[in-house]
Amino acid sequence: VMLKNCNEHNHEKCDEKILNRQKINNAVKRKAEDDISIRLSNILHTEFKNGDILTLTTNDVILIKQNIHHARSLLHPKLPQSTYETQNALKSMNIITNNDENFMFLNDFEKSIVGFSTKISLNVLCDVKKIYIDGAFKSCPKYFTQIFTIHGYFKDIYVPLVFLLLPTKDSNIYVKAFQHVIYYCTSLSMTFHPPEMYVDFENGIHNAIKQVWTDIRIKGRRFHLGQSWCEQFRSWVCLRNTSLILIKVDLKYFFGLPFLNENEVVECFTEDLMAIKPCNDEKIDKFTDYILNNYVYDDVAQFPLKIWSDFSASTNRTTNSCESFHSKLNGFFQLGHPNIFILVDTLLGIQSDIYVKLQSKATKKCKITLEKEQFLREHIKKYSSKQICRFEFLKSVSFKFLPATI
Questions:
Q1: Average of per-residue pLDDT across 100-123
Q2: Which helix (H) or strand (E) holds 42?
Q3: Taking all residues of the chain, what is their mean pLDDT, rounded to a whole number?
Q4: Distance, CA of 390 to CA of 166 (rounded, Å)
Q5: N or C: which end of the chain has fewer CB within 10 A?
Q6: Rounded to an integer, what distance in angstroms lies between the CA atom of residue 221 and that of residue 223?
Q7: pTM for the full model?
Q8: Distance between CA atoms of 289 and 32, rounded to whole angstroms?
Q9: CA 177, CA 31: separation in Å to the nearest integer?
Q10: Rounded to a whole number, what is the distance in angstroms from the first to the last CA of the chain?
Q11: Mean pLDDT across the stretch 29-58?
């Protein structure tokens, strides 16, 4: 006679601590697999905040982290060990956005250039009048030097439209990358020929742009100009001595030069700023000579006045939105130089946000931007009507738009 009893279990009851650890492990693992771009620490903190952690130990947390890393490693193929392997892995992937658009439009094995964008983004790129370009290095994957982003000024916001992985910062690589974008746009019956481009103060990128588009207007961004001058300011001018506080204040007036008319900069530099410059100070002389030779005297300047001088109330050249984007991009990764698969997943997530921005109505400028533009308009009006002199105008705008790092 055989008896069947399904309600009795003879094994020992599982430890509540183990069950609780497994419950948390499963929840965290599921979230980590759903979005591999989310930092592991963020997932753990969220789960620990809402879950039962009274029974967890340090060893439990280590075990949970190991399980998550293992689960994520199974989502993608073996990590590539060279540029060629990286591009080959991308070639084998079907990278599609959540809008069913092909995302990778470029995979140049000869020049080691990879490009990501969509037809919708490229259509906006070819339509906007102002283009902003900037490179990032920390978020760039291994075997590449930088992730190069092309932004468009669309509906009063700055939208990243093209992402390029570049092997070097050489001018010929920039030329080839731009040509690839142009050719691909042409294949889609679009024309990528921007009238104006805002870039960093880097000779390689300036030369490349002029080689590709001979009639384009190249504009330097005040954010990068301020960074460059700040670096020289800190390198050559000793500010630790309290007796030099007034010198520091006077030298900050230099940062108002970009807000003057092109034909006024040289006169302001030689008459106003040189008049207050302390004499017999080699370090200060080096700082002023650097600005004079590289930015002011057009005959010898690497970056002539027409690139960075602009007497207008627009803050388009002041914005650091591109740098803000790269800062946010870096924040997606636990460590610098993420693997290519994590980067692609992250860019796909960013592309989803881009779709939302492009289809939304024009947004209002933020309060800070509006206040800055109003400040500029008021002081430009005062200066134009001779209510204030040139040097008073220079002092006012220099302190209003002084880089935060100085």
A1: 97
A2: helix 40-50
A3: 84
A4: 44
A5: N
A6: 5
A7: 0.80
A8: 54
A9: 37
A10: 91
A11: 72
Please name the residues in contact with 9: beta carbons below 8 A apart, sequence gap of 6 or more: none
Enter the tokens of residue 198: 């805002």
The token pair that represents 201 in the structure block? 């103060």
Amino acid found at 11: H
- What is the token pair recorded at 394? 């220079």
The H or E element containing residue 235 is helix 222-236
Q: What pLDDT score was predicted for residue 222?
A: 81
Our CA dihedral for 390, 394, 397, 401, rounded to 10 degrees, sits at: 160
Residue among 299, 273, 302, 307 at smallest CA distance from 290:
302
How far is the C-alpha of 8 from the C-alpha of 1, rounded, in Å?
19
- Measured distance CA(65)–CA(25) in Å, rounded: 9
Q: Is the per-residue pLDDT at 345 higher than 70?
A: yes
Q: Which amino acid is at 99?
A: N
Q: Is the pLDDT of residue 42 over 50?
A: yes
* Model pLDDT, residue 4: 55
Least confident of 15-19, 203-207, 255-259: 15-19
Given this model, what pLDDT does residue 176 score? 98
User: DSSP assignment of 313-372, as one string?
Assistant: S--TTT--HHHHHHHHHHHT-SSSS--HHHHHHHHHHHHHHHHHHHHSPPPPPPHHHHHH
Cα atoms found within 13 Å of the Cα of residue 34, Cβ hemisphere only:
7
Handedness of CA 25, 27, 33, 38 (dihedral sign): negative
Tokens linked to 345: 């997943």
Tokens of 79: 């990590």
Residue 33 CB neighbour total at 10 angstroms: 13
* Averaged pLDDT, 123-136: 94
C-alpha triplet 400, 325, 38: angle, nearest 5°: 135
Between 11-15, 38-42, 70-74, 213-217, the lowest mean confidence (pLDDT) is in 11-15
pLDDT band at 86 (very low <50, low <70, confident <90, very high): very high
- Eight-state DSSP code of residue 140: S
Kindly list the domain boundaries of the chain, sorted by start residue: 16-73, 83-221+319-359, 227-315+366-400
The pLDDT, as a whole number, for residue 299 is 77
Rounded to the nearest angstrom, the gap between the alpha carbon of residue 247 and the centroid of all alpha carbons in its chain is 33
83-221+319-359: CATH architecture? 2-Layer Sandwich (3.30)
Q: Which amino acid belongs to residue 137?
A: F
Cα(254)–Cα(334) distance, rounded to whole angstroms? 39
Cβ 152 vs Cβ 345: under 8 Å: no
